[in-house]
Write a structure and sequence with these properties.
about 90 residues; globular; three-stranded antiparallel beta sheet; little secondary structure; about 0% helix
């Protein structure tokens, strides 16, 4: 899945879940993606443990108004908070 933006650290109070949030400084990524693949190469092992964030603008289709839409996420590490249109 292409066209995502990623930040390894998302501070509380940044409003990053809001549609108007400026994510231009976030890294462009495609899914599947892992933020700690290089951690396995570190000595000693030093896993990044933080709250990261992914963002993507999803197109909307007026013909889908009133319909049920499903977003399926696989491979979420621990916990995922998902915001749609804020």
């Amino acid at each position: 899945n292409e066209g995502w933006r990623f930040s390894p650290i998302v501070a509380k109070g940044t409003d990053s879940e809001q549609p108007a949030f400026d994510d231009r400084n976030w890294k462009p990524v495609n899914l599947p993606h892992t933020w700690n693949s290089s951690d396995l190469e570190d000595e000693p092992l030093d896993w990044l443990q933080t709250v990261g964030g992914y963002r993507k603008t999803l197109p909307t289709d007026p013909n889908l108004k009133g319909k049920r839409i499903f977003l399926h996420f696989e491979g979420v590490g621990q916990i995922a908070d998902v915001y749609v249109n804020g």
